[in-house]
Amino acid sequence: MTSRPQAIDLGFVNAYLLETEDGFLLADTGMRSQRAGLEMALAEAGCAPGKLRLIVATHGDIDHTANCNYLRTKFHAPVAMHAGDVSMVESADWPKRKVASHSLRLMHRFMRSTGVTRRMETGFERFTPDIELVEGQTLEAYGLAATVLHIPGHTPGSIALALADGELICGDTIENRGGLHPTRIVDDEVQLSAGVERLLALDLATVYPGHGRPFSWGQFRVAYGRHRRTP
Q1: Residue 191 CB: number of other CB atoms within 10 A?
Q2: What digits encode the pLDDT tens for the residues 83-102?
Q3: For the chain, how are helix, strand and coil distributed in percent, rounded to 5?
Q4: Is the Cβ–Cβ distance between 64 and 92 less than 8 Å?
């Protein structure tokens, strides 16, 4: 038995908790400032130290990995992510990427100019993941019927988790804020486009994004079709 992903709303970013027959798996961990809320959600779900079997980071950005090291220590759970983003969390160095949204660019500039970005990065707990995930790897050893999909574009090591019942935890590859669309923060546009096209070939049901509420795959198909027709 594997439950549907339980969304943990941490403000502007989501984590997802999945219950299996003998424990839990957590996808993404939010920011350090969101730690108390995350721990409260884990406790309410019955995920106590010793019951968390695996922490998966869908990619290396700080808003998804800032609590990985803390939770690994407290819950005695290994951290897994793709090798493409390991350098980010080992060195606390996040490369600059193209920001396609004007509002996001303004927000990033404000955060840099006011020192918010520097303070967030200074407090980051660096870590080396215990497990490096690869394309096609299953998580059955941790009680979860899920397959790792390597979908670079947002970051080199971005992954998605395809669950056996057609649900998808997609990290930041697709967002649901300001509409349904591929991420507007891009490392490689060609790879991102290819990754989205690859997902479109799958028989998916519900998608659980890193930002915004879950949505049906049919909704995204319609929205993306409009996007492709827009000059």
Answers
A1: 18
A2: 999 999 999 988 777 776 54
A3: 35, 25, 40
A4: no
For residues 112 and 203, give the distance between their C-alpha atoms in angstroms, rounded to a whole number: 41
Is the full-model pTM beyond 0.85? Answer: yes
Angstrom distance (rounded) from CA 52 to CA 23: 6
**The amino acid at 43:** A
- C-alpha span between 32 and 114 (Å, rounded): 19
**Nearby residues of 211 by Cβ (< 8 Å), 6 or more positions away:** 12, 13, 14, 172, 175, 176, 177
Q: What is the pLDDT of residue 120?
A: 57
Structural domains present in the chain: 6-229 (3.60.15.10)
Beta pairing, strands 79-82 & 52-56: parallel
